[in-house]
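Ticket #4471: complex job returned nothing on first submit. Input attached below:
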Amino acid sequence: MIAVLIAELAVVGAGPAGVSGALEAASHGVRVALVDRGDRTGGQLLKQTHKFFGWHRKSAGTRGILIARQFEGEVRSDPNVTFLSGTEALGYYDDGVLLLESPGGIDRLHCDRLLVATGASERMLVFPGNDLPGVYGAGAVQTLMNVHGVRPGRSVLMIGSGNIGLIVSYQLAQAGVEVAAVVEALPAIGGYAVHASKIRRLGIPILTRHTIKEAYGKDQVEGAVIWELDGKWVGIPGTERDLDVDVVCLATGLTPLAEILWQAGAEIKYIPELGGFVPLYNQDMETTAKGVFVAGDVAGIEEASTAMAAGRLAGLCAARSLGKVADGEFKDLHESISTELAELRAGPTGEKILKGLAQIWSGTEVGA
Amino acid sequence: MVECFQRIPCDPCHYSCRSGAIKEFKDINDVPEVDWEKCTGCGVCVAACPGLAVFVMDETASASECLVAMPHEFSPLPREGDTVDLLDREGVALTRGMVERVIPGRKPAGTPVVWVRAPKEYSLTVRGLCLTKEGD
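Support reply: We reran it on our side without changes. The output follows.
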């Protein structure tokens, strides 16, 4: 039997963006149903044992896992938020119905507004042997180690020197796993210098202009060959190096999990600076599908502090559209959160994001 | 010594210092600046930095030695009196040194800080440690 549930705002994804959005909307009196296919709130925060950057007043210096714990407490104690754990959103329909699946079966959630905060997942890389057991996404390795306490293997080749590749390499070393090398196709390290310094101090080589040629092994990864790239991204014969690794970890970027937005009919655009196919949205975080809001990595790959701020903005605007926020208060809060986002994106690390966002807002008033 | 040279949005170092020795940020992306007159060498910033980029060097330890404080997030932690390999920024062992002091991370999950005693000429290069293997 299909159960029918009702909420004013449904939030899909209980990571930093979704939880922030749910709590913000709830604070204005909105009845929120927060949905996540995991057992707990927190999203990517649940496996982030490293310390946050950003503002001192906003969790800088705190480890992601502790922020996840704080969120869990806040969600549990908020009378306006119902957390539907172990529940996957299957689709969103014209009549304002969000179809949900959980071990108990299929449910229909009738909601007046929807906030999609489904985040992102690892981009797959094409190379011979990429289907061998032992080839993981970096996020999967992080979950395996930091949530379940399981080492992925003995020695790892990390592909990608963005923050995720650098941080997961550090966490592998903390777990006693060797990192044979980090390879980066670009001529420069992608992530923060301080993350790179941390792993260099451990003697982990970071090889720029290098990539994987192939992974090999009978039933699982037994080794991998890396090589240098020329100016046209082509491997240079003769530069091959055979590494004795049993794990190949892909950290070549995240791409938004926007399926439900495609299905809901929101307009989507391919914007490389934001990680791939992202929904178009306005200053109020609303997509072209009426009543559907977005926040977090699904709207553009960034990081946790911007996810939390964007989540709050989306939650605020959803609450406003339900008539729950007075003009003056809305204007003040909208301005303060938008300023926060602008400040986070003001440095060199925000340049790429701003370029991407400009393509979302082209034709409309340029935002924060 | 705040080895943070890239503009990224991050500011907890300023707030961690009791003496106001790390200057206030006008823009959160600014690179930290130390006021050497105010720094007492206490090392609280070493534990506070999310990037593990802060180190303290105390050159007054003795005529030939210095003390270097570094963040160390590995188990097991070294113990006071242990002899350890002292590593440079590329993880290469420079010399051996003794662990002077180990300050466990502040609960619930703070970063431990290890003070090591090293020959003075290494104060600018010693940035890591490695427990020596049994029998070394």
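Chain B has two domains: 1-53, 55-136. Closing as resolved unless it happens again.
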